[in-house]
Amino acid sequence: MITSSGTPGAPVVEVSNLRKSYGGRTVVDDVSFSVGEGEIFGILGPNGAGKTTTVESIEGLRVPDSGRIRIAGLDPVADHAAVTQVLGAQLQESRLQDKLTVREALELYSAFYPNPADWRVLVERLGLTDRLDARFGKLSGGQQQRLFIALALIGNPRVVVLDELTTGLDPRARRDTWEVVEDVRARGVTVLLVTHFMEEAQRLCDRIALIDQGKITALDTPQGLISQASGSTIISFTPSAPLDDTDLATLPALASVEHKDDRLILRGTDDTVTAVLSLLARHRITAHQLRVTDATLDDAFLDLTGAHR
Amino acid sequence: MSTAVQTAPERHATPYAAVLRTEARLFRREPGALFWVVAFPQLLLIILGSIPSFRKPDDGLGGLRLIDLYVPVLVLIALVMIGLQTMPTVITGYRERGILRRMSTTPVKPSALLGAQFGLNGAAALVSALICLTIGRLAFDVALPRQAFGYALALLLTAAAALSLGALVTALARTAKVAQAIGTGIFFPSMFCAGLWIPVKAMPDLMAHIVVLTPFGAAASALDQAFAGAWPSWSHLGVLAGWAVVLSAAAARWFRWE
């Protein structure tokens, strides 16, 4: 599944036909995508879908069974040393030594790179300046994640992988972290974002690969994914008189009909909306409290992964 | 590069020096671990030395006092403690917390961290040994090793064997808790072999023959010989070196980075 549209720059991450299995269980099954320079690319899917295995292969932490990965033209396994210079990673469920201070961690990781970013500028941007002398164990969850983002950026990478960045954060810290990610991209760094939060993906990502059971089930912009799903538009109203189900069945692009008390909830497309309005007019029925809303990525996700079936 | 925040102005430490400095700092911040390494053996020495009967020459020991026999044993305790308790707990903790994995994504290999831990723990063990010898000499008039070079060599080999044993524990234990449990499990037999309860010299023949084939039994005997002024026997040194090689090879074979 090679991207056709919406790729802002030349691909900086290219994954083709990636496969990985553990003990006979296929975890990543023929995954292909490419990420343009400066893009925020989301990898979205339920727990255990193979998201982390995919990005760990990109980071060179896992050796794929087959397939090809290139980061800025480099192989993450064969050219691991060179890849570590262009790719920064924030890993899922990893910590630092509790007694290491923020400043010490930054100084240590700076020393790993030949041309590190100035960590003072990084912490300023990440709002950690007043926590420099705090030990890692004393930081809040949000502060720890911001420190990890700083460590991922300290080598001036072209690509940064953020895996489950906001899991375990409270809503406020989550939103703050989102701003940080947008800021990272604003500086031209390509972001690979692994998440299982729809809201996060919808808000941040330019494009999203939906992964389910090791396969990419859809790859598009958030808006594109929503409109790909059947029933991307939701029409709900309380009719002044009952509507005949056979009439409703004639509506174009209708995905589902639901009666909830005296409210009628229809899922379809923009075409459905127009048709409903003319149907109501023909029968001289008034639609009280008429609402037309777009489905969320949540709805699209459930539809596209077939998780509701 | 458009992405770059301006490069840090100051020159910076080499990666390995930075890792070593950081680990040394963290090492100093663990008073609990430090206590067992550089205070516990010394306290035990002072307590034993304060018991009058330990300071009486005993004809059964060839005119030596019990305290003379215990100084070398306590030196060994420090080494075993570090190898089996301190280091495995730290390194398995690093693995559990993903610190080794995080380092794998940087240009510096996580083996740098293991190297720093080996170096620091080895150094701490030797310092602890020196403190024991000094206290023995100054407080209880225990002679210093007469064959200093032989003693130093035996001490280095013992430290290597103890750290390799610890490395193997680290390799086999999945979590820091398990590492601690295994470490404690091996600790007591090791202490027995080192002669904490019965000095190796005072063990029955058959037992002594078996004990000198274990790393810490061989260590105790080699250290004793050097203490008494002889060059430690090559068979003891060979047993120690053999253990160090086999244990570290096994550790390298089974070590898991995550």
Automatic annotation (TrEMBL), chain A:
Localization, UniProt: Cell membrane
Any Gene Ontology CC annotation: plasma membrane
Domain ABC transporter stretches: 13-238
Membrane topology category: Peripheral membrane protein
Major subcellular site: membrane
GO MF terms held by the record: ATP binding; ATP hydrolysis activity
PROSITE patterns, per the entry: ABC_TRANSPORTER_1, ABC_TRANSPORTER_2
SMART domains referenced in this protein's UniProt entry, alphabetically: AAA (SM00382)
InterPro entries associated with the record: AAA+_ATPase, ABC_transporter-like_ATP-bd, ABC_transporter-like_CS, ABC_transporter_ATP-binding, P-loop_NTPase
CDD domains the UniProt entry points to: ABC_DR_subfamily_A
Gene3D superfamilies tied to this protein: P-loop containing nucleotide triphosphate hydrolases
Gene Ontology BP term (one): response to antibiotic
Keywords: Antibiotic resistance, ATP-binding, Cell membrane, Membrane, Nucleotide-binding, Translocase, Transport
Protein name as it appears in the record: ABC-2 type transport system ATP-binding protein
Organism of this sequence: Kribbella kalugense
TrEMBL record, chain B:
Entry keywords, A to Z: Antibiotic resistance, Cell membrane, Membrane, Transmembrane, Transmembrane helix, Transport
Keyword Nuclease included in the entry's annotation: no
Example GO BP: response to antibiotic
MF annotations from Gene Ontology: ABC-type transporter activity
Domain ABC transmembrane type-2 per the UniProt entry, residue ranges: 32-258
One GO CC term on file: ATP-binding cassette (ABC) transporter complex
InterPro entries reported for this sequence: ABC-2_transporter (IPR052902), ABC2_TM (IPR013525), ABC2_TM_bact-type (IPR047817), ABC_2_transport (IPR000412)
Claim: NADP is one of the keywords in the record: no
Family note: Belongs to the ABC-2 integral membrane protein family.
Name the UniProt record assigns to this protein: Transport permease protein
Lineage summary: Bacteria, Bacillati, Actinomycetota, Actinomycetes, Propionibacteriales
